[in-house]
Write a structure and sequence with these properties.
By secondary structure, the protein is of the alpha/beta class. It contains 18 helices and 20 strands. The chain has three domains: about 220 residues, Aldehyde Dehydrogenase, Chain A, domain 1, CATH 3.40.605; about 200 residues, Aldehyde Dehydrogenase, Chain A, domain 2 (3-Layer(aba) Sandwich), CATH 3.40.309.10; about 45 residues, no CATH class. It binds nicotinamide-adenine-dinucleotide.
Length: about 525
Amino acid sequence: MATDLQIAARKIVSVNPATGEVLRELECAGEGEVAAAVVRAKPAQVAWAELGSRRRIAILREFQAKLHAKKVEVAQSITREVGKPVAEALVTEVLVVLDAARFLIDNAWGLLRDERVPHGNLATKFKSGRLVREPHGVIGIISPWNYSFSIPATETLAALVAGNAVVLKPSELTPLVALELASLLHGAGVPEDVFQVVVGEGAAGAALLRAPIDKLVFTGSVSTGKRIAMAAAERLLPVVLELGGKDPMLVLEDADVEVASSAAVWGAFVNAGQACLSVERCYVHRSLYEQFVKSCAEKTKQLRVGNGMDADTDVGPMIHERQVWIVESHVEDAKAHGVRVLAGGQRLPELGKNFYAPTVLAEVTQSMRIMQEETFGPVLPVMACADDDEAVRLANDSEYGLAASVWTRDRKRGERLAKRIHAGTVMVNDVISCFGISEAPHGGVKSSGVGRTHGRFGLDEMVRVKYLDIDRMPGMKKVWWHRYGKNFRRQMEGFLDMQFARTLGGRLRGAVRAAGVARRKQL
Ligand code: NAD
């Protein structure tokens, strides 16, 4: 384990992946600094919760206005640090956050307020019950680099509106976007100690887990997620884990090839394929296969790869060379097993060390690494399948279960198939946009994670539910209290018969036997 000193001595460097330019160097937060941030957040959270949800919603509205005013600046910062085209940063990051704020502004009050719990049990009719949604306290958020703004921001907004404080540990590759989020939130009126950013590598994330946070929302790889789950189990810390994916796209024989191939190309190459929801496997009905792969290859060859700051760029660089190596090794493995490379298939060194050509592979088979492991890069592997059953079987043959898509002109058929796919989300005739539907829950099954972010279920993760029960007859002893005896037993048998006997006669006899209970003398 790294000591405080070792951690504190380290620096992280934010680098533009398109140009290699160093954007800024920052000191990593040490164990002590991470713990201090959480300790500072504790009393701040109490005051924040006391403000009430209407006031917090007003601050969210202010944040939304500030973000809207700075939309292009924020999008450009994302592009500088992550590489995606500015237009893409506007749509898949800034818009997603503006809309998440809209959802919470419109719905948080209704979703967070107390809820009456009517009682069915006759024995408890004199009580009134209520669900009270309370903030957890301080929520730790650990986020990845690929959606460096929309992931931490959507999680943070839900946590804050529910009355929590947040300590965010962003990816070491994208600290500047997180600091920009902090500046927007503070500018909108969120107190500095209610939202704090601690920058650093994995060690700072591990320190956050050891600090006295009350819940952790983690987004990242399966391997880190497992480590986090084990550390959280030690102290029974509640966690949400949003992990990797290997999302399948199923193209049925009645699909519109022109539309589905455009979707496959966008779904595989958006953010240079570095999206947890990107199309990582494509299964196409044999009758459409040749037409489909040809169309994908033609469209892929038209993509303009380059610096995301250039308005004409469709696909930017990958985040760093380590990610390029993974893509390269998956593609080389596929080539060695005899796939047809219809587009791309190699790096683009003339653009820089982080550029890999958008790649379409045909004749892939299910056992190849490219169909089993998360590639997280600009590769579209396409496999032929015989029918719907085989497509579903192949889609479900994965350790992941984040999202999937089904392409068909028959909505009902699409829905039927969607229900058979093991995934947190299945889209019929679209890919990825579920992440931008603020009402929709986001999260996976199997190795893709535990719990949900976004929408009503995402907000539920940010509160703990307290059941509050008020007895309306404070001067009355409960009939089921001591002192027991033969009579009481008979009366209770009768009480149960009165409610649950199958015949009317049985119920009436039960009521007669139970009647005396009102006169009993308890201790
Ligand atoms: P990663 O797991 O390497 O890192 C994620 C975060 O965890 C970073 O902030 C990192 O510093 C931190 N971290 C690393 N080791 C840690 C430790 N021991 N303790 C605590 N924190 C630690 O993932 P990444 O490379 O940043 O992101 C890519 C992965 O994230 C992909 O697998 C992708 O599918 C997944 N992802 C999932 C979703 C989703 O919503 N399901 C969204 C985006 C990305």
